[in-house]
Design goal:
mainly alpha, two-stranded antiparallel sheet, 2 strands, 3% strand
C-alpha cells in the first residue's frame, strides 16, 4: 500500500471518529468496542457437533430470526476497510500504547468509562421488567462511583460480591418487545450491526451523560480515540484468532454477531 493510500485511510478514520463524536453520539464508541468484543468472543466459542441420534431429533424452533444481508457487497467493502484499519492503524498504536501504560491502569480506564454507561443499562433493564438487575446496576454504580473512585476500581464486585454488569441496551429492548433485527449492516469503524441496533444506538445516545455535556470536537474525538486504543490494547490477539479460525471471516462475523445479539435478547 503506497503512502497516499495510507494517508487517505487515516483521514477517513479521523472524519468518521469526528462524526461519531461524544458531543453528538456519546454511546457509539462504547458500543463499537462491545460489538467487536462480543462478536469475536461468540465466533471463537467451541461448536459442539450433535451426534447422529441427536441430529435425527426434531429441531427446536429458534426464538429469533437471522437478519437478511441485501447490502452484502457494500458490507464486505466496509468489513475490509475495518480489517485494514485494525492491522495498519489500531493494532500498532495500541501495541505502542501498551508498552508505556501498565495493564492495571488500562483496566482502570476501561472500568471508568464503562461505569458511565450506567443509565443505558439501568433504563433498559427497567423497560424489560428486569427490576432486580436494575437495582443491582444502581448499587454497582453508587459503590463504584464512590468507593471505586469514579468507577476506575471494581469495588462493587471485590468488596460486596455483586455480579458483573447486566449489559442491556436499547437495541435489546426493542428486540425484547418483538422488533425484528431488519437487515445486517457493517458500520465503518464501529463494525457489525443491524437496522434495529442502529436505531437502538440512537436511543442509547440520549441515555449517555456525555451527550449532554458540551465538548470541543477535537477533545471529544481524542477521548474516544484514546478509549478505543486503551480497550484494544487489552484484547490484542482476539481478532487474529478469529480470522485464523474462519474460512470466510465476513460470514463468520455476521453469524457470530447476529447469534450473540439474539442470545442476549432472549437470555
Amino acid at each position: 500500500m503506497n503512502s497516499s493510500s495510507k494517508a487517505l485511510m487515516v483521514v477517513m478514520i479521523f472524519l468518521l471518529m469526528s462524526f461519531y463524536s461524544p458531543s453528538r453520539d456519546g454511546e457509539r464508541w462504547v458500543l463499537a468496542d462491545l460489538a467487536f468484543r462480543n462478536a469475536a468472543m461468540a465466533a471463537t466459542e467451541t461448536v459442539i457437533v450433535p451426534s447422529e441420534e441427536e441430529s435425527e431429533a426434531p429441531a427446536e424452533t429458534s426464538k429469533g430470526e437471522s437478519a437478511p444481508d441485501p447490502l452484502e457487497r457494500l458490507n464486505r467493502v466496509v468489513f475490509q476497510f475495518n480489517d485494514k484499519m485494525y492491522f495498519w492503524v489500531l493494532k500498532p498504536v495500541s501495541q505502542v500504547y501498551g508498552i508505556f501504560i501498565p495493564p492495571g491502569i488500562r483496566v482502570c480506564i476501561r472500568n471508568g468509562f464503562d461505569n458511565l454507561r450506567f443509565p443505558t443499562r439501568f433504563v433498559n433493564n427497567a423497560l424489560q421488567g428486569k427490576f432486580k438487575a436494575a437495582g443491582i446496576e444502581t448499587a454497582r454504580f453508587v459503590i463504584n462511583s464512590t468507593m471505586g473512585l469514579a468507577g476506575f476500581f471494581e469495588a462493587a464486585s471485590q468488596e460486596f460480591n455483586l455480579p458483573p454488569p447486566f449489559d442491556e441496551d436499547t437495541g435489546q429492548t426493542l428486540g425484547f418487545y418483538g422488533l425484528k433485527p431488519g437487515f445486517y449492516v457493517v458500520l465503518p469503524v464501529l463494525g457489525p450491526s443491524s437496522l434495529r441496533d442502529g436505531f437502538g444506538l440512537a436511543g442509547d445516545t440520549f441515555l449517555n451523560p456525555l451527550f449532554w455535556i458540551p465538548q470541543n470536537l477535537w477533545l471529544s474525538t481524542a477521548i474516544r480515540g484514546g478509549v478505543l486504543v486503551n480497550n484494544t490494547s487489552l484484547r490484542i490477539g482476539d481478532y487474529e484468532d478469529f480470522k485464523k479460525a474462519a474460512l470466510d471471516p465476513y460470514a463468520s462475523m455476521r453469524q457470530a454477531y447476529l447469534q450473540y445479539r439474539e442470545n442476549e435478547i432472549f437470555k
